[in-house]
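Changelog-adjacent note: as of this version, every example in the card shows the full chain rather than a window. The one below runs 166 residues end to end.
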Amino acid sequence: MKTAGNILSALFDERFMEKARGYSKFFDSWTDITAKNGIAAAADHSRIKDLDRGVVLIEIDHPGWKQVLQTKQSKLLNDFRIRFPDLDISGISLMLGSGKAQDTAQEAEPAYEAEAAKKPDTSSVAEAETEAEISAQGYDAIKDEEFREKLKRLGRRIAAEERNRF
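Full-length structure tokens:
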């Protein structure tokens, strides 16, 4: 017989994994969304960098592609809203990257992490607990380093949002 703690733990773990799967689908949808809007080639020169407070941050590798995406911006936004209604997407922000958009080795800090860095550090104990929790959840078993790091960032972000709610 399972204890209430075990049941709640399994429920919250499943909820977290469902959120993670949703975010993964969101980040993987860019190629399909650009193709649907007649700008499939733009996916090779841009990528979804982040989702910050309902705004999809798209990184582009050249100003010309920014102009192409701006012509379809409202249709892209509509597609995001239809595909991912739970994410409450309110806008798209196009930003010029520092080279190839697909190069994650030189990826800049996501906007939410940069903003968090500006605030005084009052939650270092909570962050250390979150890091320990993330390591304990088996991320080390994920072979794809890029995907593993995205999941870890997502876990930190969700944990920070939940801490800020209370």
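Structural remarks: The chain has two domains: 4-106, 120-166.
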